[in-house]
Structure formats: structure tokens, C-alpha cells
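I am still getting used to C-alpha cells and would like to learn alongside you. Would you supply a protein for us yourself, any chain you care to pick? Start from the sequence, derive the C-alpha cells from it, and show both lines together. Go ahead whenever you are ready, and we will take it from there.
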Amino acid sequence: MFSGSVQPNTVSLFSSTGSLPLQLFSTQTDATLPEDSFIHLLNDTTNLPAPPPPASLTPIHTGKEGMKDTKTLIQTVLHIQSPTLPTTFIQCPPQYPFTSASRGLGLKHPWAHIQVRDLGREWSCEFGIADQSGRTGIVRLSTFQKQPRLDAVGDLPLLHLPLSFPQRTDEYSATTWSAVDLHLPRILSAFTSPEFVSEDQPPPPHIRLPAGSFSHVVYVRIYATCRLRRIWFSHAGPSQKIPWEFDLYGCDPARAD
């Protein structure tokens, strides 16, 4: 998708305030749950416009019971909601074949960033990343995952990692918006870590584990349930000075464990 293009230091893949925010993405919802599974652009503070019927916003649970979120964004964000997390997501490129032969996005930036709001429900995000030999692995980060686990999806290895949002102590101490910053080369090296791969339980013989140097990002998938403001990639990580419009003032970083 971008492998043949000149890639600047920072590439914004998704912005909820853009004119066509989902132009590069496919969307999927659970057709059996039209009231609860949907993807919708709305104002983070007012929750307007309301999603079209029969869809209905679920109550947002953030922190202690009765705690209000006083630091919402007065701008349009993408609301992704579903009780069945795997069935509701956005994905770029729209039609990724999930085979090791596809280069997919082809973005070579080592850092991935997501600006996301914790809605107090289970949430996952997912990246396909490849090494210099073209071996692809899937990295999934989930708030419900307790321990790192190496599995497989088709002929691709899946590394499932825990993700935790900052804990709020009161309604004025922090916002429920967070920045998820991922150093993809470091995560790539975990596929062959002795912590996940043992001689007693080796991966299936048809699975080619990525190893060596990071090459590029193959795809991005953001699952329910969350609110999303931006996805971008960079060369220098969170220490890099980013364009002012990327800033989430007062947010805390989420942590991949």
C-alpha cells in the first residue's frame, strides 16, 4: 500500500477529525446485534450526533462507581462499540489476506501510536509486523489479557500481550484518554523469546516466526470497545516533537505489559 512511496518521519493513518477519516479502512460490525454493535463518529463531550436507530450508546464506566469524566474532548472521535469484541473493528488495509506473502501497509516506521479513550470495557488493538526476510507476525494487545501468549492465526504467529490503562483516583486527576506507544522492533524480538517459545511446546511446523530486524507494518486493526482519535507512525517514538494537532493534552500513556 505504501511500500513504494516516500515515507516522511511521521505518517498519520487515521484522524477522527479528518474529512474522510475511514477512507483507508474497512469496518466490520456484528449484524446479529444491531443495537449494540456499531461504529460511529460523534462528539466526545456531547455524544452527538446519536448513532442511527436501533443502535444505542452503552453507559461509559470509567474508574470508581459514580466517577465522572471531566476531561473529554470537544471534538469528533470514532466510537467503536460491541459486546462481542472480535466481530467489531476497523482495519487498514481494508482487504488484508492474512498470508505471509502480503506486504500490506508497507510502513517502515518503528513506532506506532494510538490515541484512544478507555470506556471501561474490554478492548484490543492489533498490528501485523514483518521482519527483513518477509516473515509476518501478529501482535495483539488486550486489556483482558493477563499473561503474554504465543498462538497462531492461520499460517501466522499471534503474540497476545496484556495492556493496561492508567488508573484514575478521582474525576479531576486524569482523563480517560491515553496514548498507546509501541516500539515495534522490540515487540518483534519477543516472537522468538525463550519466555514464549520453549523446546517442550514449539510452534506448529508450518508457522514461521519472525526474527531479526524489523522491516515494516503489514496491517492495523482496532477492535471494540473504545473511542479513537488518531493512529500514526513515527521514526523517533514518543520523545519526538509531533505536530501540535496530534497532542492529547494531559493524557497518560497506556502500558503494554
Q: What stands out?
A: The longest helix spans residues 184-189. Residues 10-59+69-197+206-241 form one domain.
